[in-house]
Predict the structure.
Amino acid sequence: MADQISWHLSGDYFENCSCSVVCPCLVSAGAPLTARPTEGFCNVPLIFHIETGRYGEIALDGLNVLVVLHAPGVMAEGNWSQATYIDQRADDEQTGALTAIFTGAAGGPMAAFTPLISQNLGVSKVPISFQIDGKTRSAEIPGILHMSVDPLPTMHPSGEIWANIGHPVAPDKMAMAVGAAGNTFSDRGMHWDNSGRNGLYAQIHWSNQA
């Protein structure tokens, strides 16, 4: 079984959801995921760059992954859809490993989402670029995704607002961000523009081991 294979990875991630800043699904007076998204639904691409990683004996260094999630209403109520995009540079073994990790089948952080997902929109192999330039994160999949986020403005001298909001991707430290103009996703019958919408970014350190 996939969850019996020991794996770990470290790298970077960012997302840009369809909520206004700040996303009430994660930061509100109610329990996480119980507030209604500002638009009534949530469309969120999460993009990952693996700096180093192994799935059993399979090396995952340098590969990128995009996970796209759509929740039609309050996120805690489930009925999410998920599509997964794997770096076209991955060979067959790496593709299988990344699919297991990022669909949650292999345990680890993404498994927190699986009870909420009712529709799997499949896995695609695509060219994925991921860049960090100062505090700006950006990613591109030609014809599918253009996404970039910057930190929210702050009076703090670091230029970033960090919070431990408990997000499964990076529960202890995540920066509050905002999507740049022209942030779009178009595929699987979905067409989103999350320009100026809520963003987050963080370093990630994942494993399926306790």
